[in-house]
From TrEMBL:
A Pfam family per the record: Pept_tRNA_hydro
Gene3D superfamilies: Peptidyl-tRNA hydrolase (3.40.50.1470)
Gene Ontology MF, one: tRNA binding
Coiled coil: none
InterPro entries: Pept_tRNA_hydro (IPR001328), Pept_tRNA_hydro_sf (IPR036416)
Keywords recorded for this protein, A-Z: Hydrolase, RNA-binding, tRNA-binding
Species of provenance: Pocillopora meandrina
Lineage top rank: taxon: Eukaryota
UniProt name for this protein: Peptidyl-tRNA hydrolase
Length: 175
């Protein structure tokens, strides 16, 4: 299961880059989204060969998304260690990304919510860099802002690269 973290009501913001990635992955896979009351979010399910791929965009607030993830994990009978979170990372420059296997939330409230709700820190994560604001006290305003046009050009490439990494990770989970 791949979960794109973000705020559905603010789809093009830095904080919702995880949702931008899973939207791109859904498009690549040729699948579409449907709202799932049971999962408290939008779900897209498809198969690639024998591999079932479940994508989730929680419809609850970022800091509460663990509720949605937990419900989807139960509904689709997914092991928490088979969940991959895709989320924004202030500590990486725009366009940089990394894969992390397990560990703490690193100060990200959305990740913290997922870890707490699943009672597991074994989640895989794709951390997508959004950079930092020049002033520390502007973090909230910054993460809720849109990428500027030059950053968006960089992010389009990054999102494609993240989709490639996610496909490799999904295949590894099932092997």
């Amino acid at each position: 299961m791949v979960v794109g973290l973000g705020n559905l009501s603010l789809p093009d913001t830095r904080h919702s880059v995880g949702m931008l990635v899973v939207d791109s992955l859904a498009k690549y896979l040729g699948t579409s989204w449907h709202f799932s009351r049971q999962s408290l979010g939008y779900v897209a399910v498809t198969k690639v060969g024998h591999l079932e791929i479940i994508l989730l965009k929680p419809s609850v607030a970022m800091n509460l998304n663990g509720r949605s993830i937990s419900k989807a994990v139960t509904m689709y009978k997914v092991n928490p260690s088979d969940v991959i979170l895709v989320h924004d990372d202030l500590d990486r420059l725009v366009g940089k990304y990394s894969l992390k296997h397990g560990g703490s939330a690193g100060g990200h409230n959305g990740v913290r919510s997922a870890i707490a709700s699943l009672h597991s820190d074994s989640l895989r994560r794709v951390r997508v860099g959004i950079g930092r604001p020049s002033k520390r006290d502007n973090v909230t305003e910054y993460v809720l802002s849109n990428f500027d046009p030059s950053e968006m050009l960089v992010m389009e490439r990054t999102i494609e690269q993240c989709c490639n990494i996610l496909m490799k990770e999904l295949k590894l989970l099932r092997s």
